[in-house]
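Methods — Computational structure assignment.
A single polypeptide chain was analysed. Its primary sequence is given first, followed by the predicted tertiary structure written as structure tokens.
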Amino acid sequence: MEADESYRRKERTALVAIVVLASVALASLLVAFSYYCYIRNKVSRRLKNQKRIDYEDKGGFANLQVATEKGLQVFTFKQLHSATGGFGKSNVVGHGGFGLVYRGVLHDGRKVAVKLMDRAGKQGEEEFKVEVELLSRLRSPYLLALLGYCSDSNHKLLVYEFMANGGLQEHLYPISGSNSVSSRLDWETRLRIALDAAKGLEYLHEHVSPPVIHRDFKSSNILLDKNFHAKVSDFGLAKLGSDKAGGHVSTRVLGTQGYVAPEYALTGHLTTKSDVYSYGVVLLELLTGRVPVDMKRASGEGVLVSWALPHLTDREKVVQIMDPALEGQYSMKEVIQVAAIATMCVQPEADYRPLMADVVQSLVPLVKNHRPTSKVGSCSSFHATKSPLSQEPGKASL
């Protein structure tokens, strides 16, 4: 009997041990499975987040859709080498952030501008891709047309329509001894350039959805054809904006000193109103003939915006900041109206800046009804109201 009792105790002990071990094993499996699910979920979220960041860094242009798409011509390096005379120095017509720009003639006789990428690394590659993907899908008479590109091995080139009068910057600030075409811009021409450039930004902001933010709008990126009609160029830093009212996209702060909106510089929050600020700076350049930043000037005059703002709303003071090259050949009424627009565009608070559609509406009467030397008159007020253009049903969709 004792032997049987001892055997049963051992049997119960063994059974308990088996049950305990099985429970521990099952618990271990559950813990391991839970940890596996946690790690998998974490990795999945990280990959998804990385894809979103990559998408945003590239501007999100993969989903770009517009009503009228036209294909681009793909050139060989040999073709463009021949068109530009072997990229000879005598054919250099400019130097942008992307690289040297050459004058060229294609085999069919078309004059073109060929931009040869000299920026090595990922940033240069991304700017090339953004420009090709964006300009292959957008069409406006106020944007510089991209005709084609070359991507042979290590060569990256962009081929544009040729703009005979180069950039606005070189006309506002001609360099003595320079071979580039330059001339004094009269008041009427400056008004027309201001309107054309405004229409270019209006198209990007109001006629595509979500809007395209240029992010590097400046006088050197406004090109002029033989009749001094202006087109916006250089879209290497462009990004798609938020499609939500009042929304923004967060990104690295890039652009050119003196043109970058203060809220974007401080927070990295980018909106279409960031471009509006840059446009306001260009208006001030057209009014004053001064560069945005020049620390060689007298104290208080180094930064164009802060120097000009106190003068813009006063009829007598605004005359003091006008470009001497204009030699007084302008209408004071028009000057005050343009100064009022510039004042609104460079407001420190983005919400107080107008839409580009409103800027266009305010400039159209000045260009259409221009009087070379009309009498001084009262200035009509400039209101930053929502433009009906932003409600138009025929928008292109990006």
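Note: The radius of gyration is 30 Å.
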